[in-house]
Amino acid sequence: MPLALGTTAGRSLRGRVRVPGDKSISHRALLFGAIAEGTTRIEGLLPAEDPLSTAACLRAMGVEVSPIEAGQPVLVQGVGLDGLQEPASILDCGNSGTTMRLMLGLLAGRADRHFVLTGDDSLRRRPMKRVGGPLAEMGASIAGRQGGNLAPLAIQGRRLRGAVIRTPVASAQVKSALLLAALTAEGPTTVIEPVQSRDHSERMLRAFGADLTVGGPGATEVTVNPGPSLRGQAVVVPGDISSAAFWLVAGAITPGAELTVENVGLNPSRTGILDVLDQMGARIEVLNARDVAGEPVGDLRVTHGPLQAFNIDATLIPRLVDEIPVLAVAACCAEGVSRVSGAEELRVKETDRLAVMARQLGAMGARIEEFADGMAIAGGVQLRGAAVDSETDHRVAMSLAVAAQIASGATSLERPEAAAVSYPGFWDDLQRLQA
User: Is residue 146 one of the residues assigned to a domain?
Assistant: First the structure.
């Protein structure tokens, strides 16, 4: 059923909001806890569909994971580096590309065990060869549709060998899958990226006791020496900056807005959104900066003000790839033409996000020119209410809600429930902050 948005013209946004736990860190805490020895206690784990898919796959392989409920700590009883059991059935990754890609790395080295991974219609269309190809350099055996590019994927576990692997694109999912495989390989593995992608895996693996070093220009080379057992840890998951991005943009573009987003992860490999908003002249302050479990954290205060156009290229994309949809909304409200390039990765997300945002914002009157690897967005456009559709993509759903906030007239959003993939309470928070 469509959701009515923007029906209260002139309503602003004020107050404090705490976004859900970081999705990337939530996945990794579950996975590393599963192959550690002892108990891992996770506070603030994101209780959304994607991490639930990871937990369900782990349970199917004999890992005890306590129920995942908002506000409750999650306990993972580790089975050790090689303790995962062959599942009795197919492992369902739901809509979660992170689950599937990291599972490929986790399972490829489980000698003499067989695994099959599948997911929903959307996930079965997403490319997996980008992980399977580099894993094959370590000796992995992964088969699937289109030569192993599309799920369902069959993994025949075998002993892997260490390797030096250069990845063609900077991808935290590809890198993390290789690091997981490297933990039980014979000999060291070095992963070399063109530029550094988000580094949550490196930080957390070190905390769990892995023998891992980071070097190279711009911290682009990561080496794992196999051997040490991982030890269960206490993990505190900070708020997800990719979820905070919706409130940062909404606060920056909505007249009279004043919002504080609390407890946001400020890992430098993830804060490209803050760099771009600073480039635009957005009024954002970092308050109460601190370190929590090896990750920098702070509160972000944003108020409305005039914005300038931005320019995003391939060097910045790894640090804000998930924030491009909502930045496209910000660009509509800026002075000048904003440009995004080097973002072809967005075409193989839950949807083709470049095409979807051009289509949906276009329905609201935005002037967007789409390219193979990006878009140009004309600023100074008054968006108007329209019938729009999330096209089942969580980040599209929330970006369109931000657009509706400043559009003239009412907006009707089809499939708003997509937001639950990463932010189950988004619509409740929106209603509260509007009040």
Answer: yes
What DSSP character marks residue 82?
T
121 noted as active-site residue: no
State the pairing for strand pair 141-144/150-156.
antiparallel
Of 240, 299, 322, 429, which is the active-site residue?
Answer: 322
**CB contact set of 151 (below 8 Å; sequence gap of 6+):** 93, 100, 117, 118, 119, 123, 124, 126, 128, 144, 145
Q: For residue 423, what are the contacts with CB-CB under 8 A and spacing of at least 6?
A: 19, 20, 48, 240, 243, 246, 394, 398
| Residues 174-202 pLDDT 10s | 999 999 999 999 999 999 999 999 999 99
Give Cα separations from 152 to 94, 144, 259 (angstroms): 12, 6, 43
- Pairwise CA distance, residues 391 & 119, whole Å: 17
- Which ranges of 20-143 does DSSP label H, i.e. alpha helix? 23-34, 49-60, 97-108, 129-136
User: Which CATH number covers residue 141?
Assistant: 3.65.10.10
Query: Cis peptide leading into 296, omega within 30 of 0?
Result: no
Does any domain span residue 31?
A: yes
The tens digit of pLDDT for each residue in 304-319 reads 999 999 999 999 999 9
Closest CA to 296 of 429, 200, 219, 420: 200
Full domain range(s) for residue 312: 3-20+239-434
Eight-class DSSP state of 314: T
Phi first, then psi: give them for residue 182, nearest 5 degrees: -65, -20
Q: Is residue 273 part of a domain?
A: yes
**Do 273 and 334 belong to one domain?**
yes
430 and 297 part of one domain: yes
Q: For residues 116 and 255, state if they share a domain.
A: no
**Do 10 and 49 belong together in one domain?**
no
pTM check: above 0.90: no
| Pair of tokens at residue 142 | 């992964």
